[in-house]
Amino acid sequence: MQQISTMLMKLFQRARLEKPGQVDPRGAEFTLDLLIAMYDRSGTGYVKIRSAAAALISLSGDTLLAKYRAFFQFYAVPDGKETLITRSDLRSLLTDLNQIPAIVGEGCTLSCVEIAIHDCFHGVLNAAIVEEKFLSWLRSEPAVLLWLPTCYRLSVTEMVSHQARCS
Description:
The protein has 2 domains: 1-47; 61-159, EF-hand (Recoverin, domain 1), CATH 1.10.238.10. Strands 1-2-3 form a 3-stranded antiparallel β-sheet. The protein has helices at residues 2-18, 27-39, 49-59, 64-75, 87-102, 110-120, 131-139, 147-157, and strands at residues 77-79, 82-86, 128-129. 21% of the residues are buried. By secondary structure, the chain is mainly alpha-helical. Strand 1 and strand 2 (82-86) form a beta hairpin. Helix 1 (2-18) packs antiparallel against helix 2 (27-39) and helix 3 (49-59) runs antiparallel to helix 4.
């Protein structure tokens, strides 16, 4: 928990310097509280770095493709010349990401995660998939993660301004 707290302090300090007056001074504290609520419900005082990273990536203002690539980098494992994501790795990722809508009572069941894994690996004979197959599956907007592109689209539309006037 201390490692995540230190990282968040640095992250929010940098953000305050880049965007003066736009970042709440308690942002790191609020974010840590959110991560604890999502990933340490039993009060162990421990949150996996990878889980926290998945949440921060998904809540970031980056593009969907950049988020998807970052998920792959955090959850996939090197296998010789390639980096691959296994069913087990994908299960961990989806379980971690499912904690975000779950915090507001909108998470899906474990069977929903299993259906998504089956769908991602449909027609795959190997035990793991490459990044391009993973990205292709995510671009199809699987139901288990439908909240992610929806939130992204909402955040992008907040920046749109039109020069039209209503009468």
